[in-house]
Amino acid sequence: MAEVQDQLEIKFRLTDGSDIGPKSFPAATSIASLKESILTQWPKEKENGPRTVKDVKLISAGKILENNKTVGECRSPLCDIPGGVTTMHVVVQTPLVEKEKKASSQPKENKCVCVIL
């Protein structure tokens, strides 16, 4: 019975509203391992998928989960329903997109237009 309680049913909600899972994970599973699992299960037909673990952020109970934590450490008492499924939201943020945003916003900030008549 203790082994069943050390397992957590998790489904991953993608930004378009679709899900990966649910799948059972041991409480000792690291968040980095969950992210690796998401990478391998990511639907091939979806665009802008993550390339590395660094591109993925997991959110559970309103908190961004850190890679060095375990599922058991991140478990929220509010979401811990026996036999229930925990939903974690997946945010994909690639470094390339961040750089493009910064590059496109900098010229706009530095522009000054003057007209002398």
TrEMBL record:
Subcellular location: Cell membrane
InterPro entries cross-referenced by the UniProt entry: MUB, Ubiquitin-like_dom, Ubiquitin-like_domsf, UBL3-like, UBL3-like_ubiquitin_dom
Membrane as UniProt keyword: yes
Membrane topology designation: Lipid-anchor
Main localisation: membrane
Primary role: May serve as docking site to facilitate the association of other proteins to the plasma membrane.
Highest taxon, organism lineage: Eukaryota
Protein name: Membrane-anchored ubiquitin-fold protein
Pfam family, one: Rad60-SLD_2
Domain Ubiquitin-like: 8-74
Keywords, sorted A to Z: Cell membrane, Lipoprotein, Membrane, Methylation, Palmitate, Prenylation
